[in-house]
Amino acid sequence: MPNCLIRSTGYWVPPNVIDNDELVASYNAYAARFNAQHADAIAAGEVEEVPLSSADFIVNASGIHRRHVFEKDGILDIDRMVPQIAPRPIEDVSTQAEFALKSIRPALEKAGYDGSEIDGVIVASSAQQRNFPGLACEIQEQIGANGFSFDLTMACASALYGLHIANSMIKAGEARRILISSPEIMTCINVHSRREVHFIFGDASAAMIVEADDGRPGGWDVLGTHAENKWSSALRSDFGFINIAERQVEPDYEPHLDQDGHRVFKDVVGFAPVVARNPMDKIGLAPEGVRRTWLHQANIRMVDMIAKRILGRDRTEENAPAILHEYGNTSSSSVVMNFELHSDDMAAGETGVMCAFGAGYGVGAVAVRKR
Ligand code: COA
C-alpha cells in the first residue's frame, strides 16, 4: 500500500478588502433607511426594527478585522448587498473555475507538475456555481488533467473531506496524484443585510496536490485522516433547486444563510476536538508530540478552545496560528491557507494536525509529518 503525501498547496485571495468600519457603515446605512421607511409600522409593533451593527462587536465576538472579497462595490451598495458579477457566455471559463485556477496554478508550479500529470480532480467546497456539469470536470479540462473528476461538498470541512477520500484512493492504488481544489466565494452565499452574519465571510481559493510516495523527497506524509458527521440544522444555507420551486412570493429569491451562532459554537467546540484526536489516537500520536494544529478559521474563541482540546495546552500563535483577523471565515479554503502560511518553519520529522469543521455538522481531521 503506497504512502500518501501532500506534495504542495496553493492559495489566492482577491486584492479587494472590506474592513469592519466600511462593512458596518454600509450595513447601518441599510438599517437606518429600512427603519425610517418603516417607522410607523415599527412604532405599531407590526415590523421589527433592524438593529445596528458595530465594528467593536465584530472584533470582540469573532476576531475578524477585515475580509478579502471577490467584488466589493455590490456588497457595500445598500440597494444590492451581494457581489456584482457579470454573467459569462457558456463557452468562457466559469467564474468559480477561474477563481479556482488562481490557486491551482501555483500549487502545480510548486510541485513542478504539468496538469497532465494529475489523474484525479476533486472540487471540495461549500458550493458550486451550477448543479452540473461538475466544476471539477471544467477544471480538469482547463489544466489538461487525466482520470476522474467530481465535486463534493461538506461546507467548511470540505477540503479535508477531499483529502480523506484522496488518501484512501491513493493508498488503494486507484489514483496516483489527485488535485483537491477549494474555491470559496462565500460573499455570494452570505446575507449582508443580516446583522448576526453580515461580517463572517471572506473569499479565497486554495488547492492541494496529494500523491503516492515515489521516493521523491519533500512534502508532508499523511499519517492518518478521519471524517465524522452529526446532523444539525443550526447552520444552513437554503438555496437550492427545491427552494427556487418553493417560492410563494415574488421576488422571494434571496440566498438564505442562517445560523444559531451560540448553538454552533457550543456543539462544534465539543465535537471537533474528538474527531481531531481520532487519527492521533490511531497512530499513537500524543498531544505533546504535535508541534502545531492548523484549524479552520471561524471565530477566534472557537480556535482557542478547539486548539486547547486537541493539543492539551493553551493556544499560542506558534502552536495554532490564526488568520481570520485578515481573511474572515473563508470556508473550506481557510485550513489549507493556514497550513501553507504557517508550515515553512517546521523541521523534517515534526508533526501537525489539520482540523476543519462546519455545517452538517461535518468535521475533518488529518495528521501530517514534514518529510
Ligand atoms: N453588532 C453589534 N451587536 C451585535 C451584533 C452585531 N453585528 N450581533 C449581535 N449583537 C448583539 C446581540 O444582539 C447581543 O445583544 P444583547 O446582549 O443585548 O442581547 C450581543 O451582541 C451578544 O450577541 P451574541 O449573539 O451573544 O454574540 P456572541 O458573542 O455569541 O457572538 C457569533 C456571535 C455569531 C460571532 C458567535 O456566536 C459565533 O461565532 N458562533 C459560531 C458561528 C460560526 O463560527 N459559524 C461558522 C462555523 S464554520
What keyword list fits this structure?
single chain, 371 residues, alpha+beta, 9-stranded mixed beta sheet, two-stranded antiparallel ribbon, 12 helices, binds coenzyme A
Structure description:
This protein is of the alpha+beta class and 371 residues long. It has a domain at 221-370: Peroxisomal Thiolase, Chain A, domain 1 (3-Layer(aba) Sandwich), CATH 3.40.47.10. 34% of the residues lie in helices and 22% in strands. The protein has twelve helices and 13 strands. The protein has helices spanning 20-37, 39-43, 55-62, 73-76, 95-111, 135-143, 158-171, 241-245, 261-282, 300-311, 324-327, 333-341; strands spanning 4-12, 17-19, 66-68, 120-124, 148-152, 177-185, 203-212, 220-229, 235-237, 257-259, 290-295, 351-358, 362-370. A nine-stranded mixed β-sheet has the order 5-4-6-7-1-8-13-12-11, sandwiched between helices. The protein has a two-stranded antiparallel ribbon with strand order 2-3. The protein has a two-stranded antiparallel sheet with strand order 9-10.
Average pLDDT across residues?
96
Over all CA atoms, what is the radius of gyration?
21 Å
Query: What is the fold named in CATH at topology level of the domain at 221-370?
Result: Peroxisomal Thiolase, Chain A, domain 1
Order of helices and strands: EEHHHEHHEHEHEEEEHEHEHHHEE
Name of the CATH superfamily of the domain at 221-370: Thiolase/Chalcone synthase
* Overall CATH architecture of the domain at 221-370: 3-Layer(aba) Sandwich
C-alpha geometry:
globular
Q: Which ligands appear in the coordinates?
A: coenzyme A
Q: Low-confidence runs (pLDDT<50, min 5 residues)?
A: none
How far is the first residue's CA from the last residue's CA?
18 Å
